[in-house]
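Action item from last meeting closed. Structure (425 res):
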């Protein structure tokens, strides 16, 4: 439905300007990380920077379409958009193209399209639509289960494509649901799972079980309103089972390269020879990325002057490792500005989300900020070696049409919803 011409729509230009700055600066870094040879032709569409410029041009048309459609369309047809998106994920198992071990792309001519990038916006719309329905109460268990199913369907389909990185992003919806009244027990459970998993891998299931029991029973005896003794016993048993399960999963389910990444992150490997071998093999990208960032210093080496970037020491640097180009060529100052702009964008979206009159728009806004935050945190943390290597792009920065269009759709649907605040009911 096209907007009515007699309505006045004003878009949040602060958000749009930050978006433009991130996309523009990202393109400059794609030029540095992918340019080969002495001459530079910005319109050489055989090179990644030329293709990205074409993607950016098509993005403008995409934005115009998104903003031209009536805001209520996205709420009314959220379920239809979600179903179409899920069918596109299922279709990959029949028509998908395998790239680097993941069957996540459709090959269309000389281009590839990754539907998982668009599934994020579709899932955000579907979750916001279901939870904001008058019949839904997120505090009720049956409604929680239905909401989790909406989120888990795309996550499971993407996991089957061997794309674990994109699957993790769906954990962002936890923040959205928590804002809308999801019981605190889920937050406690999530923190406990992460805490127990790390302790179990670092110190083993025995020490982890003892620590868990001490924490549980200490909290029990300090609680003035003591529950029955069976409760802490059950919690302790669950914690012990979880710590043993984590060790089993790590030893018997994860692939060798995944275990190596976790091992280096948690400093589990002590053999210097083994560590050196890992850095030459599966962790080569990370090792070179860290060296590129550290070589940038405070001010950086300058645009297209980074020796490790121009020397192509970091393979496929223009994709998931694009932030290492920022660190080398623009230094600490440039990296800080990029991080600040990302934070400003996310805070701006959260601020606008709180101003929404409808629960649907508010929830969708929180989904936008949460998804961007998880991508931002994981990608930059991965490039700097702060978290295990997980292959997901940096929003608006990394090379790729699907990623750029997916995040553009995600963000500009919210910009459209926000522009319609005066007409919300």
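Sequence:
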């Amino acid at each position: 439905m096209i907007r009515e011409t007699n309505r006045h729509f004003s878009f949040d230009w602060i958000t749009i300007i930050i978006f433009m700055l991130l996309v523009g600066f990202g393109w400059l870094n794609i030029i540095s990380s992918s340019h080969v040879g002495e001459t530079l032709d910005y319109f050489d569409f055989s090179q990644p920077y030329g293709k990205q410029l074409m993607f950016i041009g098509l993005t403008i048309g995409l934005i115009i379409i998104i903003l031209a459609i009536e805001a209520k369309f996205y709420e009314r047809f959220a379920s239809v958009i979600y179903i179409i998106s899920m069918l596109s994920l299922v279709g990959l198992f029949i028509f998908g193209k395998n790239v680097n071990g993941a069957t996540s792309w459709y090959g269309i001519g000389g281009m590839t399209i990754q539907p998982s990038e668009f599934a994020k916006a579709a899932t955000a719309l579907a979750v916001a639509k279901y939870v904001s329905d008058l019949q839904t109460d997120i505090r009720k268990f049956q409604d929680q289960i239905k909401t989790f199913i909406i989120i888990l369907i795309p996550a499971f389909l993407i996991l089957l494509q061997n794309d674990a990185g994109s699957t993790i992003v769906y954990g962002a919806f936890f923040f959205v649901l928590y804002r809308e009244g999801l019981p605190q027990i889920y937050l406690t459970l999530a923190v406990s799972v992460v805490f127990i998993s790390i302790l179990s891998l670092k110190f083993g299931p025995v020490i982890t079980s003892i620590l868990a029991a001490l924490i549980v029973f200490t909290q029990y005896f300090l609680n003035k309103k003591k529950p029955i003794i069976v409760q802490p016993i059950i919690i302790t048993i669950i914690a012990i089972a979880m710590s043993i399960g984590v060790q089993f999963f790590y030893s018997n389910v994860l692939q060798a390269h995944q275990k190596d990444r976790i091992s280096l992150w948690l400093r589990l490997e002590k053999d210097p020879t083994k560590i050196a071998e890992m850095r030459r093999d599966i962790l080569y990208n990370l090792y070179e990325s860290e060296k590129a960032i550290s070589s940038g210093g405070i001010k950086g080496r300058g645009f297209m002057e980074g020796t490790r970037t121009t020397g192509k020491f970091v393979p496929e640097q223009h994709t998931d490792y694009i932030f290492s180009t920022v660190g080398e060529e623009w230094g600490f100052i440039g990296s800080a500005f990029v991080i600040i702009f990302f934070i400003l964008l996310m805070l701006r979206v959260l601020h606008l989300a709180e101003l929404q009159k409808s629960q649907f728009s508010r929830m969708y806004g929180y989904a936008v900020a949460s998804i961007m935050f998880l991508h931002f945190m994981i990608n930059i943390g991965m490039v700097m070696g702060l978290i295990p290597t997980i292959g997901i792009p940096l929003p608006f920065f990394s090379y790729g049409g699907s990623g750029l269009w997916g995040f553009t759709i995600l963000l500009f649907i919210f910009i459209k919803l926000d522009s319609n605040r005066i007409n919300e009911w």
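Note appended to the action item: The chain has a mean pLDDT of 86.
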